Every structure is written in structure tokens, then in C-alpha cells.
Amino acid sequence: MKNPGWPAVLTDGDVTLRPFRRGDGPRWSRLRRDNEQWLAPWEPSPRLNWYDAHSPASYRFVYKSYKKSARQGTSWPWAVCYRNELVGGLTIGNIIRRASGNAFAGYWIDSGHAGLGITTTALALSIDHALTVGLLHRIEVNIRPENIPSNRVVEKLGLRREGLHERFLYIAGAWRDHYGYAITAEEISSQSLLDRLKSHRRRTSP
Fold first, then answer.
1. Most exposed among 36, 125, 150, 181, judged by the fewest C-beta atoms under 10 Å?
2. What mean pLDDT is predicted for residues 14-28?
3. Residue 109 has pLDDT above 90, yes or no
4. Are 100 and 136 in contact (CB under 8 A)?
């Protein structure tokens, strides 16, 4: 099996991860264009200007790329949905099998849906799936130190901060430092990230 664990639909409560669909283009374009100021500081700059790079026409190329990489077994590109509405994206990418069993997780969320726990739930679902059904051993997440909300997401799930990757990605005209976080299959063998997250929420709820 070239890409174990894919395709998959993962759900917890109001949050669902599903493969992107051809018909997601208009909604994806609107979200990405509306969230330029929210997303652009943290993502590698597109070759085109942001507006053109996130047009419905551009989505056709993005969708083909998603389909190709999933078919080749190098990524799992999920649409993040809240109450059945597309609100973001999450990709387990750069999948390396055999002795490494490693992959990277990256994600984005509509600013209007930030702070609702959607991203944290989605990341927990994806990592649990990757390290069990997906037969991967290690997931990495790299985040700019200045991106406080995104750092909180991985810290809430208990991912280890392994260090600072200096000048790691070229973003917004410069090479930017990133914190490197990681988790392995052994670390969720006794308790899944989703169960860990639910326990945390029970402890901290009023």
C-alpha cells in the first residue's frame, strides 16, 4: 500500500478533516483572499501576488497538486471543516517511509474561526491518525517564534520543542527562524493526543 492512512475522513464533534474536493475552489479562494493579512506573515510567499495565487483558477492547480502528492504517497492534504463548512487546511506532508517514518504537519485557519479550538482538535486528529493507522513514526511541526497562537496549539498538545531552526524558511522577504516541535508514536501509545486534549479541556473548563 503506497499511502497507508489515505484517503481518510476524521471527525470529532463539530470538527472534520476530509480530502479537498474539486468543488471547494470558490470557498477556498474566498477564505485565502480574505485572510491575506492573517496568513501571509507565516507562510512562504507565493510566486504570484496573493490575490492571483488564491483565485478559483489557481485552486485548480492546487487541487491537482494535492491529488498528485497523495497518489504518490508524499502527503495527506485535508480540508478542515467546522459544522460541515470549510474553514481551513491541514497537510501532513514530506512523508518519508522506511527507516525514517517521518512527516511534517502544517495548517491554516480562517481568522473568523480562530480561538474556537478547531485547529488544536484538527492537529490532534491528524497526528493520532498519522502515528497509528498511517504507520508513521514521527511528526514535526515548525512555527515562527512570533506566531504565538500557533505555538500555543502544539504546546497544548504536548509536542516537544526540540530547538530553534535558524533561517529555516524564506517568508515575507527574509529567511525566518522557526521553533521545531515533534512527537513520536511511542509518546501517544498510552494516551492519544485527542484524549490528552479532552482531558486538558476538562481540567481547565470553569
1. 36
2. 98
3. yes
4. no
DSSP count for the chain of H helices, then E strands: 7, 8
Rounded to a whole number of angstroms, the CA Rg of the chain reads 16
All domains in the chain, ordered by first residue: 10-204 (3.40.630.30)
pLDDT in tens, 47-72: 889 999 999 999 999 999 999 999 99
**pLDDT computed for residue 191 by the predictor:** 94
Dist. CA 177–CA 31, nearest whole Å? 27
Q: Give me the phi and psi of 175, to 5 degrees please.
A: -80, 125
DSSP letter (8 states) at residue 3: S
